[in-house]
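Q: Here's a chain of 86 amino acids. Please give me its 3D structure as tokens.
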Amino acid sequence: MKKNTATMEDYVELGQFYLLNHRYEESIKQFKLALKIKPDAQVYFQLGLAYETSCKLPEAKEMYRKAIELDPNHKEANVHLSRLTG
């Protein structure tokens, strides 16, 4: 059996590819795999975008909050979260 040697960056790159191609479920899966390797504010933000664009707003808000928890100065996460929470 072949061992999976994908890195966090591999998952993020694939997640961004799927996000840009409107394949949100696949994008979400890839970002989640990346986060299993290492929690990262930018990846949480990307996952939030994937949720937001697929109309899963409670999940999007949660991901933006996690991004801000890791990086309180994450401008885009703050902007998206404040827009969603009004």
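Q: Can you summarize the key feature?
A: The chain has five helices and no strands.
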